[in-house]
Amino acid sequence: MTGTAPIILADLAARGVPFALLARDGATVEVLTGEVVDVELLADIPLTDAAGSPREVLALVPFRQVVERGFACHDDDAPLRCLVVGERHSLPLSEALAQLPTEPVALEDAGFDIDDEAYADIVRRVIADEIGRGEGANFVIRRDYVAQVGGDPLTAGLTWFRALLEHERGAYWTFLVSTPDHLAVGASPEAHVSAQGGVVTMNPISGTFRHPAGGATAETLTEFLSSTKETEELFMVVDEELKMMSAVCSDGGRITGPHLKEMSRLTHTEYMLRGTSTMDPRDILRETMFAPTVTGSPMQNACTVIARHEQSPRGYYSGVAALFTPRADGGHDLDAPILIRTAYVVDGRLRVPVGATLVRHSDPYGEVGETHGKAAGVLGAIGAIPRDVVARTVDEDAPAPAPRPLAEDPAIAELLSSRNARLAAFWLNPQGEPGRGPLAGRRALVVDAEDRFTTMLAHQLRHLGFDVTIAHWSEASPAAVAAADLVVSGPGPGDPRDADSARIARLREIVAERVDAGAPLLAVCLSHQVLADRLGLELAPLASPHQGLQKTVDVFGTPASIGFYNTFTARVSPGTTRVGATEVSADARTGDVYALRGPAYASVQGHLESILSRDGLTTLERLVTHALSPVEA
């Protein structure tokens, strides 16, 4: 219920009751108090009471919940902690500030748990052993800034929360959550997922520009925005979150942006994704665990890579704070920021986890610098280290002028908007009703080889008219494979030559079943390589992985702009256009194969479903139409 008596923050601290402070609108601080309940699964989050009446719940979801999706993690038993709200109050910002402590907090024995050289070595290994061997496009590896907190931890947390309210800008949520034996305080820039009245929104943010001393300028920001690495990093996380949107939204999701997320010491680039869904918000949360901006892609393999290279469990880092708010119709809206830019205190010990996104051309020391910048962004905002710029005032009698957003600079705005010229119009524009396309009336089975690009492929196929089912490779039975009008054998991580992989062995069986039966087949990326191997083509690693690379290539006489995420390739002698009954589209110089087509089958190395594939949907229709064409006797 909503409290009517004045709320005194010091009383909450003195009584030791569980509570949360949330600043979401820039004008007020929400104060939530209630009972703490720890549950095992997202489905167990208690959104109703014993009588079935809806109630408000704030849940701290740890990274270990990825086990619900069958993904790997270092399991630290961090609880899925729910604050079941009994009362909520709202304080004007000025009143909240007047009640919060201001004394500096002493930190002792401060520093990173992994030194710079050791972290740089981890970066090198991930690039060589993971990205270089086809395990994925990008991975986020964290390290922790740690220190001993002098004095009472809750007083420290309230002091830091005040500092964030005063000195941080651009945060999505500024928050403090105090529960038994655990304190979290932060200013998250990024909404992971929200569901408001059936409209689902995701907010991929990537690319980190650390402001120079004195603040950012249009000139320094222009250099950052012109970086190929930063641009491709953002495109890759948009692709990854569109996979999630396509899994939970009937309309697949549409992107808008890019925008700038300007904070006190850091600036990021971001897109907004929106779609509609009728799913339970807990199910939406499960299907979107967790953001690729703090894990990597493809998501399942990213979790495995994190478990291999991070030296300790993540706790709540990269999880979410999920606020479930009852609606008048008995359902719940969801608002869930990512738990980043957050300080945790347990047993008097401060921990600030930070990570860098590693891609094919990451510089190890550049990524070391990024973790320093992100840690400084938190520590500077809470006043643990000196700030670069004078903080804005909250004195209503003498307000300081807010800095002009750099996004309003015409050159910056033009540079941002120009990025969309590279992207697929299908994901930028309204898509129309699925199921009414030129290939309506047919059933397609999409085989998921552990890369959820399959959800985006399925969405495109529905817009071509197909009735689509997605099946995990381990559950794609011979009967289901035989019954489909079209089988799309999908992309996935790994080496197509791996004789010990059960997943690749099953892809080989599926490809063989369809080719031998003369039944329509489309093979994508990893499955394209499997088909090429069956046809007797050479498979080889690329000299430099194509992870998030956009290329214009010839696809059987038609130039097509396509996004590539591959470390391996099929290869023919330069100039080869046919191998037996199979037509070949390959690079004229290297012989790298971009597409194949033969009797009732076609394949493509690139990802036609990617936002990087400007000609993706038309190329998909061409290849599928070929596969469905009657085979000449």
Summarize the helices and strands and which ones pair or pack.
Layout: H1 9-15, E1 19-23, E2 28-39, E3 57-61, E4 80-92, H2 93-99, E5 107-112, H3 116-130, E6 138-149, H4 153-167, E7 173-179, E8 182-188, E9 191-196, E10 199-202, E11 205-210, H5 218-225, H6 228-248, E12 254-262, E13 266-276, H7 281-287, E14 296-297, H8 299-309, E15 320-326, E16 332-337, E17 342-346, E18 349-358, H9 364-381, H10 410-418, H11 425-428, E19 443-448, H12 453-463, E20 467-472, H13 478-483, E21 486-489, H14 502-517, E22 521-524, H15 526-534, E23 538-555, E24 558-571, E25 578-579, E26 582-586, E27 593-598, E28 601-604, H16 616-628
Parallel strand pairs: 19-20, 19-21, 21-22, 22-28
Antiparallel strand pairs: 1-2, 1-7, 2-4, 3-4, 3-15, 5-6, 6-14, 6-18, 7-8, 8-17, 9-10, 9-16, 10-13, 11-13, 12-13, 15-16, 17-18, 23-24, 25-26, 26-27, 27-28
Helix pairs in contact: 3-9, 5-10, 6-12, 14-15
Characterise this structure.
The model is unreliable at 389-401 (pLDDT under 50). This protein has 16 helices and 28 strands. The longest helix has 21 residues, at 228-248. The strands form three sheets. It has an 18-stranded antiparallel beta sheet that branches. It has two domains: 9-393 and 409-421, 4-Layer Sandwich (Anthranilate synthase), CATH 3.60.120.10; 425-628, Rossmann fold (3-Layer(aba) Sandwich), CATH 3.40.50.880. Helix content is 28%, strand content 32%. By secondary structure, the protein is an alpha+beta fold.
